[in-house]
Design brief:
Blueprint: H1 8-53, H2 57-60, H3 65-77, E1 83-90, E2 95-98, H4 109-121, E3 125-130, H5 139-143, E4 146-156, E5 159-168, H6 170-222, H7 238-297, E6 301-305, E7 311-314, H8 316-322, H9 335-338, E8 341-344, E9 349-352, H10 354-361, E10 364-366, E11 371-373, E12 380-391, E13 394-404, H11 406-441, H12 450-481, E14 489-492, H13 493-503, H14 505-510, E15 514-516, E16 526-529, H15 531-547, E17 554-562, E18 565-572, H16 593-598, H17 606-616, E19 620-626, E20 630-638, E21 647-651
Parallel strand pairs: 15-17
Antiparallel strand pairs: 1-2, 1-5, 3-4, 4-5, 6-7, 6-13, 8-9, 8-11, 10-12, 11-12, 12-13, 14-16, 17-18, 17-21, 18-20, 19-20
Helix pairs in contact: 1-6, 6-7, 11-12, 12-17, 13-15, 15-17
């Protein structure tokens, strides 16, 4: 049955009747439990005292003075307020002693069946019956007509000699009844309170609470809150009908007021749109002016070229570098007629177009070293980059950022001059020291002891490292000063890689590193480069792979030919390069922290030289590395002959 406002009272009445029945049943249970406790305890007491104070002859000669004395002692032991009379029966069913005035030898016929049953069962019996004995009537007896008697068999020396009949007092029974009445009354009160509380709860849940919700919803509706709802689900009564009516009324009112509000808002909407457009235009104008002020204030030159190759933006710094005056009209003019860049080599110059190069790379083109901007005021050394703006694979224009590095080049030139002079001054005495040590080690000055020979060998090795460092410094100095340009020629990349690997086989063998390579002569892919410089570049990369790989490791050299390019990769499973240090790996004098720990000796110039020599051959170099797993360096160089098919050559 579903609890609703209609069924709360009937359910409460049923619960109250059920509680009353439980109280009545509990009444009978308590009465039996209390009387049974008294029955068990006094049965044991009678049996123990009969064994203690009575003898078998007392039942055969009940009138004898000694027997009478025994019976009186026994009666005194059982003289308690709960017991009003004690009768001792013989096994034949005759009275042998009585606390009251019943005569000895008297035989009550109504007790005969009970006596016979006890003799047969040989166990105590508790009897409750309608009272007929008026010897101890009380007020309670008149309204409570039951009498309670206990019959206990008497065993003396293991033999049944008689039966003791105990009459319980009305006062004792009344005390038990009072206890039961008190407990039953308390249970009835608790049950009534529980039922009353349940009724109050359900009244609150089904009637009072929904009405309070309705009142709150009505107040919210009066304040204009049209989203308020009053939902009473699955109650199927008048409250749910009221909630439904309220919801229908709310929807109707909401529709009416919304129609009115829409008419009012439509009048304000145009005004807001106009105001918003005005504010937006003003904000965009301020934002644009702020960006322009920033772009015009920075020291780098910034230009923007549209799809047609015309200058669409140029900041003040770029305008000062390009034009004789800041007011020269440049916007809208062709980029190619106003800006000209070239790269300077040792013996010649080569014009470059960074805009076309950025578009062809679909990304960013970085201006190379010794790049100059031609201006009416003279050529300016610049550094920077040009980036293509792509949208859906279509070029939308190019943005270029460059700066005048005249002052920086002057400082670097002074530094390079110092390095060149210092290196030259150091190389002469170092060469002399090497010649003297070789003279001593060869025994030309006399035989050396073993210890002296070892010390001189250490000095010789350290001197060689100093000479190598001086040579590296000279190479870097020549590169920076533009004096390292080597005359180019046709170089077979396969033969060059094979020669570089063979030159380093001894180093790999000493360090227990395996180099995988294979000499391939089926193709003759030629590049145009300085043969010594390009050989030194690959030798540096491969030797680094060997030095920074643990014993038992391997180095793979692979050349991949695609279209008009060759990509050479040198892969190792060595110590790798920490991620946070990878951006500095081509810098001068830089060595990663784990490289210093693995190989203490080193100048940090090898990869800087590699980058310079590769770029000298119009190539580029990059790498991928993960610390603890190894590195892979890539070199891309342009081929002179067109390779129509993609070929992969494993230098094994």
């Amino acid at each position: 049955m579903r609890l609703t406002s209609k069924t709360i009272l009937p359910v409460g009445l049923i619960l109250l009747i059920t509680g009353s029945l439980i109280v009545v049943l509990f009444w009978y249970y308590l009465e039996g439990q209390m009387l049974n406790d008294f029955f068990v305890s006094h049965s044991d007491k009678v049996a123990r005292n009969a064994e203690r104070f009575l003898v078998s002859d007392d039942f055969n000669r009940p009138k004898d003075s000694l027997s009478v004395q025994h019976f009186n002692i026994f009666f005194q032991v059982l003289d308690v307020e709960e017991i009003t009379n004690v009768i001792i029966w013989s096994a034949s069913g005759q009275i042998v002693a009585s606390k009251a005035t019943l005569p000895i030898g008297f035989n009550q016929s109504e007790e005969g069946a009970i006596i016979s049953h006890i003799i047969e069962m040989k166990s105590p019996v508790f009897l409750k019956h309608i009272g007929t004995n008026n010897e101890t009537k009380s007020t309670l007896s008149e309204t409570f007509p039951y009498e309670y008697e206990i019959f206990v068999p008497l065993f003396i020396n293991g033999e049944l000699n008689g039966i003791v009949e105990l009459h319980l007092s009305d006062m004792f029974i009344s005390q038990i009844i009072k206890k039961i009445v008190f407990i039953a009354a308390m249970l009835f009160i608790l049950a009534s309170l529980a039922v009353f509380g349940a009724i109050i709860y359900f009244l609150h849940y089904f009637i009072i609470s929904p009405l309070n919700q309705l009142s709150g919803a009505s107040k919210a509706l009066r304040l204009g809150n049209w989203d308020v709802s009053f939902a009473v689900k699955n109650k199927k009564d008048e409250i749910e009908d009221l909630a439904f009516s309220f919801g229908h009324m709310r929807s109707s009112l909401k529709d009416s007021f919304e129609k009115i509000e829409r008419k009012e808002q439509s009048a304000k909407k145009a005004e807001k749109i106009a105001q918003g457009m005005s504010n937006s235009l003003e904000a965009e104008r301020d934002r644009g002016e702020g960006i322009l002020r920033y772009l015009h204030s920075i020291k780098e030159g910034i230009i923007a070229i549209d799809q047609k190759g015309s200058l669409s933006f140029i900041n003040l710094t770029a305008a000062r570098m390009i034009s004789k005056t800041e007011n020269s009209p440049l916007l809208g003019k062709k980029y190619s007629t106003e800006l000209s860049f070239y790269r300077e080599y040792e013996i010649d110059k080569k014009k470059i177009d960074p805009v076309s190069l950025a578009i062809s790379h679909h990304g960013t083109y970085v201006l190379p070293q010794k790049c100059f901007l031609c201006t009416p005021n003279g050529d300016i050394p610049v550094a920077g980059s040009f980036s293509a703006i792509m949208k859906d694979g279509k070029n939308m224009g190019v943005v270029g950022i460059f700066q005048n590095i005249t002052e920086r080049l002057s400082i670097e030139r002074e530094k390079d001059d110092f390095l060149s002079i210092a290196a030259h001054q150091l190389r002469t005495p170092l060469s002399g020291i090497r010649w003297v040590i070789e003279f001593l080690l060869e025994g030309d000055a006399g035989k050396l002891s073993k210890e002296a020979n070892e010390l001189l060998t250490q000095i010789f090795n350290n001197n060689q490292r100093l000479i190598e460092l001086v040579n590296d410094l000279l190479d870097v100095s020549r590169i920076n000063m533009g004096k390292s340009k080597e005359e180019t020629s046709l170089v077979n990349i396969c033969q060059l890689l094979s020669d570089a690997v063979k030159a380093l086989e001894g180093l790999a063998r000493d360090r227990k590193i395996t180099i995988h390579y294979e000499e391939v002569c089926a193709l003759t892919p030629n590049i145009e480069a300085g043969p010594k410089h390009i050989f030194q570049a690959f030798e540096n990369i491969i030797s680094n792979a060997i030095k920074y790989t643990e014993a038992g490791g391997r180095v793979d050299v692979l050349a991949k030919f695609k279209k008009n390019k060759v990509i050479v990769s040198v892969k190792d499973n060595g110590i790798g390069i920490p991620k946070q240090e990878q951006s500095k790996i081509f810098s001068k004098f830089f060595r990663s922290t784990n490289a210093v720990l693995k190989e203490a000796n080193g100048s940090g110039l090898g990869l800087n030289v590699v980058k310079s020599f590769i770029e000298e051959a119009n190539g580029k170099v990059w790498f991928e590395s993960e610390e603890g797993k190894g590195s892979e360096f890539f070199v891309e160089l342009p081929l002179l002959n067109q390779i129509k098919k993609e070929n992969i050559i494993l230098i094994k």
